[in-house]
Design a protein that fits this description.
This protein is mostly helical and about 150 residues long. Helices cover about 70% and strands about 0% of the residues. It is built from five helices and no strands. The longest helix has 23 residues.
Amino acid sequence: MNTRATQAAVGAGVVALGALYAFGARNIPGEAGYGGVGPNFLPWVVGAALLGCGAWLLVEALSGGFRRMEEASGAASADWTGFVWVSAGILLDALLIEKIGFILACTLCYMVAVRGLRWSRGVRDMMPRSWLIDAAVGAAISAPVF
């Protein structure tokens, strides 16, 4: 696959992700809460932003490719173990949020996703102390958000 086709595929993927967000936001009730916006507000904003960015990426890719793009930094290939950790955290959150509640599900998501981000940097600390610190930080972030 050539570079322009790859760039167009990235743009199309971002458009598709934005469309999925917008499709999902349709099913969320929109009654305004105490802040004046309903629970579907942020998914609509994210969906619209992804659609706009994806469209821009597509226009750039189809009109000559991404311009002034810097050389890639980082590893030559993806760190699949870190990707799996982060993906598992997000999926666990989606699966458990209704069963164990927002705060606990988001805390667990944080703990697992941070593990993946550290893993991708080469930090493979699996000690209980590290998990407890991540749990405390995750709870400290998710509790006020709730």
